[in-house]
């Protein structure tokens, strides 16, 4: 199959961001990722031919963000099945790639269950692999549909909370097309406001240490023509104090049964600031990010990442022969210890509303959340 993205980047750009796609070249099936580690400097594809390569891509954030991890995990199972690897072993490896985003395990289990069901019903390995792929594709499509619904519900909520429009929205991390089969979660709402001429300003937290805001959200905002301004994370307080934030919109990696929200580290301080300044703090996430088996925030496993992500900065470079394509620059003296949790937890009482594809929960209560999830999953 022709590699449209590599052959014609401009055409692909106009069709949206190719975050991940399944391909079947003559050498065998592959999962193709837009390598998010190289953005915004370069739009380069990463071709994963096996599960260890995909797990590495997940751990190093070539593919990232809760919904995209779920979709990639499901395709990873399909890849293992199609290439004749042990599906149980592959599913375990994928499931353990990153611990916090609940969507990952959800996607992996869904494709693996479809595969094992087909195999138990007597399907050939090829047929069972095709069933796993169909399940991954279905999840991919459903996520795109969920994005569109979240954008609608989110925009309606902003209209209700902030009549008059002209929203100035602060966001953290990256929650757009790069994390999704569709337009994303929180950034999809900002995008919908932008298309209606209602987005006055998107304030983009740079999101240290890996700069998902500066590298990825600014990249998406620029492509879609949003009025955006980048800020260092520690500038957010002064922005609230100046009265320049109308709402905070973030995504979620996992929402516990009590409504506690694990999201990119730095989300919780924004919730505290928002409460102090009487600004709505809105979480936008599909119901696949709600984990009824995790009772509360304390039970959410928070990924701890290597200290060098804080003590060094890694930049792309044009390599000399034999050199790697990146160079690391020290930000702290050699041997400095770093505290580097990937996520933090915002308690439900600081969250004004949770927007899902099935509607909005506000105030955030366990009963309200459970009711909405049951309704969405049965509908
Ligand atoms: O470490 P990352 O880049 O995978 O973290 C991503 C986030 O924290 C996003 O905000 C989250 O996945 C929600 S996006 C729907």
Automatic annotation (TrEMBL):
Name under which the protein is recorded: Methylthioribose-1-phosphate isomerase
UniProt record similarity statement: Belongs to the EIF-2B alpha/beta/delta subunits family. MtnA subfamily.
Enzyme Commission number(s) of this protein: 5.3.1.23
GO MF terms, alphabetically ordered: S-methyl-5-thioribose-1-phosphate isomerase activity
Catalytic reaction equation(s): 5-(methylsulfanyl)-alpha-D-ribose 1-phosphate = 5-(methylsulfanyl)-D-ribulose 1-phosphate
GO BP terms: L-methionine salvage from methylthioadenosine
Pfam family name, one: IF-2B
InterPro entries per UniProt: IF-2B-related (IPR000649), IF-M1Pi (IPR005251), IF_2B-like_C (IPR042529), Initiation_fac_2B_a/b/d (IPR011559), M1Pi_N (IPR027363), NagB/RpiA_transferase-like (IPR037171)
Disordered: region residues: 1-20
Binding site for substrate: 64-66, 98, 212, 263-264
Active site: 253 (proton donor)
Record has Signal as a keyword: no
Gene: mtnA
UniProt pathway: Amino-acid biosynthesis; L-methionine biosynthesis via salvage pathway; L-methionine from S-methyl-5-thio-alpha-D-ribose 1-phosphate: step 1/6
Site location (Transition state stabilizer): 173
Alphabetically ordered keywords of this record: Amino-acid biosynthesis, Isomerase, Methionine biosynthesis
UniProt cross-references to HAMAP family, sorted A to Z: Salvage_MtnA (MF_01678)
Chain's role: Catalyzes the interconversion of methylthioribose-1-phosphate (MTR-1-P) into methylthioribulose-1-phosphate (MTRu-1-P).
């Amino acid at each position: 199959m022709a590699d449209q993205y590599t052959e014609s980047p401009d055409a692909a750009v106009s069709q949206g961001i190719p975050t991940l796609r399944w391909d079947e070249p003559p050498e065998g099936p592959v999962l193709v990722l837009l390598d998010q580690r190289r953005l915004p400097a370069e739009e380069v594809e990463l071709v994963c031919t096996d599960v260890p390569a995909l797990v590495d891509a997940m751990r190093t954030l070539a593919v990232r963000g809760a919904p995209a991890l779920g979709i990639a995990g499901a395709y990873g199972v399909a890849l293992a099945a199609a290439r004749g690897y042990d599906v149980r072993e592959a599913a375990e490896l994928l499931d353990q790639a990153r611990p916090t985003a609940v969507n990952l395990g959800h996607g992996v289990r869904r494709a693996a269950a479809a595969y094992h069901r087909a195999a138990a019903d007597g399907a050939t390995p090829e047929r069972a692999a095709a069933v796993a792929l169909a399940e991954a594709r279905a999840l991919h499509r459903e996520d795109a549909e969920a994005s569109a619904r979240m954008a609608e519900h989110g925009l309606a909520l902003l209209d209700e909370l902030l009549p008059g429009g002209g929203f100035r929205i602060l966001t953290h991390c990256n929650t757009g097309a790069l994390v999704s089969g569709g337009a994303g979660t929180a950034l999809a709402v900002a995008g919908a406001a932008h298309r209606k001429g209602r987005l006055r300003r998107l304030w983009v937290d740079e999101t240290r240490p890996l700069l998902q805001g500066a590298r990825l959200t600014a990249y998406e905002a620029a492509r879609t023509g949003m009025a955006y301004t980048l800020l260092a994370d520690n500038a957010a307080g002064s922005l609230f104090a100046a009265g320049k934030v109308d709402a905070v919109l973030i995504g979620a990696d996992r929402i516990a049964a009590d409504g506690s929200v694990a999201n990119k580290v730095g989300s919780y301080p924004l919730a505290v600031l928002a409460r102090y300044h009487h600004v709505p703090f809105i979480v936008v996430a599909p119901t696949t990010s709600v984990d009824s088996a995790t009772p509360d925030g304390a039970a959410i496993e928070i990924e701890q990442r290597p200290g060098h992500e804080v003590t060094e900065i890694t930049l792309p470079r044009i390599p000399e022969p034999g050199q790697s394509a990146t160079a690391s620059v020290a930000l702290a003296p050699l041997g400095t210890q770093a505290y580097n949790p990937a996520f933090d937890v915002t308690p439900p009482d600081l969250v004004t509303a949770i927007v899902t594809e099935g509607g909005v929960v506000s105030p955030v209560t366990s009963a309200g959340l459970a009711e909405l999830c049951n309704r969405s999953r049965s509908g």
